[in-house]
Amino acid sequence: MKIGIIGAGSIGLLFASYLSKTFEVNLYTRTVEQAADINQYGILIKKGSEQSIAIVNACPVREWAGLDDFTIIAVKQYQLQSIIETIRFQSMVCENFLFLQNGMGHLKWLENIPAKNLFVGTVEHGALKEGSNVVYHNGVGITNAAVLKGKIEPLRHFSDLTPKEFPILVKKDYREMMVNKLIVNAVINPLTAILGVKNGALIQNQYYYKVLVNLFLEICNILGLENQEIYLEQVLKICQNTANNRSSMLKDIEAGRLTEIEAILGYLLDEAAKQKKHTPQIEIIYYLIKGKEQDERGDHL
User: Fold this and answer.
1) Are 240 and 166 contained in the same domain?
2) What is the C-alpha to C-alpha distance for residues 53 and 15, in angstroms, rounded to an integer?
3) Is residue 45 in a domain?
4) In the listed set 172, 206, 224, which residue is the last one of a domain according to the structure?
5) pLDDT tens digit at each of 301 positions of the chain
C-alpha cells in the first residue's frame, strides 16, 4: 500500500518516519533541496536518547500526481488552499485523503473536493523539526481520524496496518473529535504564544490560569457545550502532561512564521458572529496574535 504525505514539516516528517515501517511512503516537500536531503540521508528521527533513520521516497510537491493509495495532507492550514487546487486537478486518481490541520476553519474548503473518501484527523503527538530531514518526537500520543465524506472502510484498513507504536484511532463523529482538539488548541496555543511561556505555566501561574478559564468558558458558550468540567479537565491534563513543551503557535511566532490562528480563533469568531454573540476575550487574543505575527514577520498594514 502506497502512502503519500504532502508536507514535510514536523508532522509530515514524523508520520513519514513511523509509517515507513509498514508502508511504502512517498513524501512531497515544498523545496527540491529538502527532497534531495531526505533521499540522500533519510529521515533522522530522535526520541529521548534514541535515534533512527527512516528511508522514504521524497520529491517536490509539484511532482505529485495522485498515484498513491492513501494521501495524508500535513501542511499548515494557511498553506492548504494551493494544495486543495492541486487535489481537485488530480483527485480522480487518488480516492482517499486524510487532512491533519489544526482548528476547524478549513473544513468548509474540503466540501467541494471531488474525491470519494475524505477523512480528517487530530494529532496528539509532539514533534519538532530540527533540520530539513531531522525531527524530534518530543511527545508521544495518538492520532484520531474520522470520515468527513465517503466510506469508513479505507480508513479502517489504513488504521489496521499502521505500526502499533504509532496508532491511528478511527472515531465515529468527526465534529466531536475536531471540537475536542479545537478547545485545546484555542486555549493553550494562543495564550502560550502571547505570554511566551511553556504549556505548564498556564496552570502553574494563578493569574494565567484565570485567563485560561475565562477564555475556555467563552469558547464553550460559542460551541454550545454541556459537561464543561470534562472539557476543562482535558485542557488542564494536557497542560500538565506537556508542561515542558512549547506550543506550535509559540514556535511559529518565535520563528517569524504565520500561525494557524485563522483556523482556530478565526473559526470561533465566525461562529460567534453567526450566533450574534459577543466574544471579547477571543477577539482580544485573536488580534494580539495577529499583531505578534506582524511584528515578528516585519509586515506592515
Assistant:
1) no
2) 13
3) yes
4) 172
5) 999 999 999 999 999 999 999 999 999 999 999 999 999 999 999 999 999 999 999 999 999 999 999 999 999 988 999 899 888 876 557 899 999 999 998 998 998 888 899 999 999 998 999 999 999 998 888 999 999 999 999 999 999 999 999 999 999 999 999 999 999 999 999 999 999 999 999 999 999 999 999 999 999 999 999 899 999 999 999 999 889 988 999 999 999 999 999 999 999 999 999 999 999 999 999 999 999 998 876 654 4
| Segments forming the whole domain that contains residue 64 | 2-172
Number of domains in the chain: 2
Start-to-end Cα distance in the chain = 48
Answer yes or no: are the C-beta atoms of 118 and 149 closer than 8 Å. yes
Whole-angstrom distance, CA of residue 198 vs CA of residue 56:
33
Whether residues 191 and 85 share a domain: the answer is: no
- Residues marked active site are found at 181
pTM across the whole model: 0.91
Asked if residue 239 is part of any domain, the answer here is yes
